[in-house]
Specification:
mainly alpha, 4 helices, about 70% helix, flat
Length: about 70
């Protein structure tokens, strides 16, 4: 991950991990059990979905927060 990407992250990965674990625990889901049952096809689909969502978020952020010029 590049330094510029790390600086522009909106939600830190640790916060996302915390939120996901909270949702899992509320619904009685154990991450280790789920990992064992995921097929390679489902893993690839999830990976592609995350990449697609990341691109959309980046695009949204760049459109809604245009770079400020002249130090403003």
């Amino acid at each position: 991950m590049s330094d510029s990407f790390k600086k522009t992250e909106i939600v830190p990965n640790k916060l996302i991990d915390l939120l996901v674990s909270d949702v899992f625990s509320k619904h009685g889901i154990n991450k280790e059990k789920v990992k064992g049952r995921l097929t390679e096809e489902k893993r690839q689909m999830l990976k592609e979905m995350v990449e697609d969502l990341t691109k959309k978020v980046d695009q949204f952020v760049s459109e809604t927060n245009p770079k400020k010029t002249n130090g403003k």
